[in-house]
TrEMBL record:
Official protein name in the record: YdhR family protein
Organism, as annotated: Nocardioides anomalus
Gene3D superfamilies: 3.30.70.100
Length: 113
């Protein structure tokens, strides 16, 4: 499987940015990526005050490459960059070695608390 990581630094981001990012994911981004062709999954992760990232898994390298190319071209202007106040510090393709679904099952939710 083919992955992509996009990470923003929150070191110099405004106070409260984590809540603003979570509200954006809940209100807009989750629905957009839930219906995205070629995407198997996306997970949004955050360490408050340190970083915010999207972890993508694509069905093919072609799907990953197409998304990465279009995203990279507009990375400074995407909503995440606008909210954080800076473009991503990392846009990196990777190989997903394995995925396991635990006994508790998978939960798809626009906001995980």
């Amino acid at each position: 499987m083919i992955g992509l990581t996009v990470r923003w630094s929150l070191a110099d981001a405004p106070a409260g940015v984590e809540e603003e990012l979570a509200a954006y994911v809940e209100g807009t981004s989750h629905a957009r990526f839930s219906a995205m062709a070629g995407l198997r999954s996306k997970i949004w992760r955050c360490v408050p005050g340190e970083w915010f990232e999207g972890c993508y898994v694509f069905e093919s390298d072609a799907a990953r490459a197409a998304f990465q190319e279009s995203f990279t071209a507009e990375a400074a202007d995407v909503p995440g960059s606008q909210i954080v106040g800076a473009p991503p510090v990392l846009i990196e393709a990777c190989r997903v070695v394995a995925v396991a679904e635990g006994a508790a099952g998978w939960v798809s939710a626009p906001r995980a608390e």
